[in-house]
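I have been asked to look over a protein record a colleague put together. Alongside the sequence sits a line of tokens, each denoting a local backbone shape. I have pasted the whole thing underneath without changing anything:
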Amino acid sequence: MALIPATLTTATAAETPVPAVPDVTTGKQTTDPQKVRDFWTPERVARALANEKKDQAGIARDAAAARAAAEATGGKGKSSAPRLTAEAPRILPAKKTSVSATAADVPEMPVAQKVPFPQNSPAIIVGKILFIDDAGKEHGCSGASIAADGKNTVWTAGHCVHPGDGRGSDGFYDLVLFIPGYKESLDTPGDYDAPWGEWVAQSFVAPQAWTRDKDYDEGDMAAFTVEAPTGYTNLADTVGAFGYRFGYGSDWSDIIDSGFPGEGYNRADMDGYTQFYCTGDVVDAVDWYPLDNRLEMNCDMGAGASGGPMVTTEGQIVGANSHVDIDDQDQRINDHLYSSDHGGQAVAVINAINDAN
């Protein structure tokens, strides 16, 4: 599926120059795919899930500084500058699969619930991401199959594939594995099942706004291609793929947010094995400040759900779980869950991942 070309939303190209496409960083995972699959033993997965409970992320102090700066300069109101946009529809699996009722059929739910039919579509589009950091520590995130050329692409948060430390292509994590429809084994508690295969990361793309600047406001997003395991053709035909709407603002109604949290706000029942979801509206995190267009949703999922998609009822990604608000003791203070603005940076990433296919 080809990307719909970037367009302007506020003026014609003849009247206003098209905004420059932001720079991205690309990289590759060169470890033999079977070695990646073999690395993730039940013990290592368990360590990754345990580390999720320690990975509570937040930029509350950074966000407070941004608000203070805006107040000092008197900045307010939304920007009217032209924006890059891109969109694509959802892809259904090639083979007929069961389709569960969507979360949009229930009232707004800021308190996450377990996905009722985790092995039905569209739940199987979402999966677990496993990786190791530079210190060799195991970690877990979430991600989702996304419509892209080649049909083998995962969308997630930038911090799930790169530490944002300025190292560029050399900074991408190793032993990155995507498991759609991931679940705990019923036969062997403490182990996991991969009903739809284990897909090894190949090529990464993330914005320089993340890899160089560690910008949570605009840059915490990434995409990577995967290699199909034996017996499978491609990811989108196997489990389907969400479409996307990038560059259309930060206010959305009836969003479905899902992931595999290892912990949550005032929660003790999240284990990193189980897919949870919230539903509700998404708003601009700081509506009066045009330089902070993060998406804010009331949802108590925490670490481990990072990279999980914020999806419209039409099955299009508009954001990815990024961070929460914390206090000076690194304790979460509310149920706000944020995504970086999926505007020009997201357009640049999806363009680049399509070029790589």
Q: What stands out?
A: Confidence is low (pLDDT under 50) at residues 1-14, 57-62.
